[in-house]
Amino acid sequence: MRFLRRNVFWVYAVYAASVLSGLVTTRILLDGLGTDGFGLWAVIGSLTAYLALLDLGVGPSVVRFGAEYRGRRSLEDTNALASVGLAIYAAIGAATLILGAALAWLLPLLVEIPDDLLWPARLAVLIVVAGLAARFPLGLFGNLLAAQQRSDVLNIAGVVSTLAYAVAVVVVFASGGGLVEVALIALGSTLIRLVLPLAWLRRELPALRPRLSLVTRRRARELLSVSGDNLLIHIGARVVFSTDVVVVGVLLGPEAAAFYAIPARLFALAFGMGTAGTNLLYPAFAELEGAEEPVRQRVYLRSGLRGGMAAMLFVALPLLLLPDHLITAWIGRELGPSTWVMILLALGLFLHQPVHVLSQYLIARGQQRPLVRILVVTVLLNVALSIALALTVGLWGVALATVLAELLAVALVPRLTSRVSGVPLASLARSALRPVLPAVALAVPTLLVLGRWLWVRDDLLALAPLGLLWIAAFVPALWLLGLDRGERAALGRKLRPGRLAAG
Prior knowledge:
This protein is an all-alpha fold. It is 85% helix and 0% strand.
């Protein structure tokens, strides 16, 4: 894997910036927009996120093929990939603007909106959609950099854009702001994140020359044929992160959406932090597929399951055991209905982590078609249960639907991976479960006993020492007990400062 130390540093730096930004901006936006306005902004974000499905799965396919072509040292194929991808994305960007305008007009039919927020909400949708439209052609170059295993470049841009967003929210809302203002801030931060990585593109791909002459129907069909399966996988991921808030907003109203959006944001942030390191495996899997090295793929697979579960336990156990304390410390007031939502979503994180790693392996191996069948079933189950449980038991039932759907995925995806990889199912299970026991053994005295029963504090500064204690206890214990000796040695060599530029 190239630039592992640099990639790991920056991938977690962007989440550190996201945590800082969330701590600063969420309370400001909740106070500045009001409960209804904040809930409406959450629904707008979730609805417009569905327009990202117009990507058609092209982005992951560009990463996969770009990494394979790097493994084969095929520069002309990379140029053809960039040319076809750029042409497809230009058309998708135009379609996004049209559909976004329709969504803005139809918004009051989808969710109840107070009269004074109707036109600000419509304008906010149009502004957010403009950022999505720009993301398609500009994001192609980010995908090409990801294929070269330069996630550090993308995450540097993520850090800058996230901090810029936080500063802008503080400055603008100090003198009053609304939905339109926060949408403009989001658009500006999106453009920073998309444009900044272009400065590294020529260095990584000096021979890159997208040309119209390389755009052919055959190449477009080849890319889109694989992308169709990736689209369905992307839809599955979008359901996990967006459908819940939409269902709550439509069926239970903007105020309920605000109560759900707070734990949902913590869920999304924890998911990102827990999977950030293992996301680096996808281009590595694909490059090894191009180089025809299945043994190394299997080694990375087992290590990814262990390391990924360790990372997820680190970020999700506090959400599971201290949900009310964390929400109150973050928002500044109690949000009773949010507590059980947070507990259930935290359970969903533990279930989703191994499925995420195994899915990356299967897609990189070109085995996404059987994976799609499984994910389509889980998506349909999630949506159906979310609607049914929202109408019968209320807010927490929507989160329960996510957990039940993830249980089905956990039952099916490892079996498929075992057949494709030749790794026994029991070996995959041991790899994923190895960090669980030491993590739980640490969580009981630190988070449950000390944090919940003895350290009863509900502000961030008071919780900070507990967080530092959790880090100090968790990291060395999981290093020793969650990874085997060979993995510790290999990872230690990769992370030594002397190997920073070695790739």
